[in-house]
Structure prediction request, 328 residues.
Amino acid sequence: MHYHYMENKINIAYLELAVSLAREGMEKGMGGPFGCVIVKDGEVIGRGFNQVTSSNDPTAHAEVVAIRDACSRLGSYQLGGCDVYTSCEPCPMCLGALYWARPERVIYASNREDAADGGFDDAFIYREIQLAPEGRKLAFIEKPLPDALQLFRKWKEMINKKLY
Amino acid sequence: MHYHYMENKINIAYLELAVSLAREGMEKGMGGPFGCVIVKDGEVIGRGFNQVTSSNDPTAHAEVVAIRDACSRLGSYQLGGCDVYTSCEPCPMCLGALYWARPERVIYASNREDAADGGFDDAFIYREIQLAPEGRKLAFIEKPLPDALQLFRKWKEMINKKLY
Prediction:
C-alpha cells in the first residue's frame, strides 16, 4: 500500500508537460491554449492539445483528445489507475468525459475563471448546466416518446451486454 | 421570417429516427441505447449512436458522434442553424459538447432520470458537476502554475487567432 501511494504522488512535471503541450498547440495554430497528459504507473499513456479549429471538431478539447489517445493505447474505455494532468480546469464537456472514463484523479493548473478571462465559455456553461433545461440560453426541449422509454427496458433485459 | 419559422418546426420524425439509431446501435452491440441526428434546412447532416464499448472510446456518445459527423460534413466547428434530435436528454459531457457546437435547439425524448433508471451515470454526473471540485467523488485537485496563467495572456495578445 505504501509503495502504491508513493507511485501515485502528484508529480508537477506532468502538469508542466500539459502546459507545454498547450503552448505548442496554441503556437502551431491548432486551437486554444489547452493541453493534457494522462499518466499510468509512471508512464505517459495519453496526450492532447486543443484542436477544435484546426480539425473542425468542437469536441477536440485537450482532455477529450488525451482520453481517446490513452483509451486507444490501453484498448479500454476505462482509465482506472490513471491520473489526468491538464493545463486548465476541465470544462463541463471534459468533466463529463472524465467521469465516463473514470480515472483516479484530475490535476489542473488554471481554473474556469482564468479560462473565462481568456475568452472561453467554461464558466458560462457551468452556470447553464445548473439551470432547468427550459431556462437555458440554448433551447432544450423535451418531447417524450414511448419508443424511447422502451429502449431502456430492452437494455435492462439484454443479457451479454457490456456495461460502461 | 415566417418562412424560416415554418422551416424550423420541430419534426417528431427526426426524433423517431434518433430512437431508431439508438435501437440499431444497441441491437448490434455497439454500445448503450442512445441515438442522435442533426438536421439543417430539412436535411439530416449528422447521425450517431453510442459506440463507447465497441470503439473503446468513453467519449463516443451518440451526440458526440453526431456532432463530429455533422461538423466534418459542414467543414465547420459550429452548428449554427442546426437542430439536434436525440433519443435521451444529453449527459453533461454531451451538453457541454452541444454548447461548444452552438446549434439552435436540442430536442430529446427520454430524460436524465430515465437514463439513470436504465443504469447510466447521467444524473450522478449532473449532481457531481454542481459540487465544488474538492467535494466530488472523483478527485479534482488545483495546482496553480504561473506558466499556465501566462498561456491565457499570450492567447489574448495573439493576432490572427481563430476564436471558437
